[in-house]
Amino acid sequence: MKRRYFFDNIVPIVMYAVVGTTISSVSVGLIMYVVGQLAFSIKLSLAEALSFGALISATDTVSVLAIFQELRVDPTLFYLVFGESSLNDAVAIVLFGTFSKFIGNVYSSSYLPIAILDFVLIFVGSTLIGILFGVLSALLFKHFDFKGCLYHEVRGFATSSHQPHRPHPINP
Q1: Can you tell me where the transmembrane regions are (predicted)?
Q2: 48 shares its domain with 69
């Protein structure tokens, strides 16, 4: 992976992932809600419909990326699609966690700012936790010599990979 293409396009990648996945989630959720209200499908609450929309909104573009690689498309396009597909899963998980908190509760439009703030805090907080643990892992493996003790190296790698998921569960 050529990181330069990825990081040169980080702003559009994040915008496509956050805005695109949010639009997809809300669109699918609202359609499911309206279809249910019209008795063409199972009647869902708005929170349930939006949670469902978030659940199915993330896309997996492995086949598209394989075709792009075979056709040798412009690297910028390849990394835009790669980056968006890498981040949209995280966005969908955070959206699902945010929407599912409202299932079974009475809510009004005044809860919209709370939901947006919750989304932003979880998304930014998770990103910062990931960066922190990534830097700590890099420093650990850079400054400690594990030669001769494969067990400790594998254990350190597995532990450093697992630890970022412990501070905050997906849906508390």
Answers
A1: 12-34, 46-68, 77-99, 111-141
A2: yes
Q: Which amino acid is at 73?
A: V
Residue 67 domain boundaries: 1-107
Question: pLDDT digits over 54-68, tens only?
Answer: 999 887 778 888 898
* Neighbour-count burial of 55, counting CB atoms closer than 10 A to its CB (0-12 exposed, 13-18 middle, 19+ buried): middle
pTM of the model: 0.71
Residue 115's CB is within 10 A of a number of other CB atoms, namely 17
Rounded distance between C-alpha atoms, residue 123 and residue 93, angstroms: 9
- Token reading at 43: 């009647």
The values of phi and psi at residue 101, to 5°, are -65, -20
Cα–Cα distance, 87 to 58 (Å, whole number): 9
Say which residues have a Cβ less than 8 Å from residue 22's Cβ, sequence separation at least 6: 91, 95
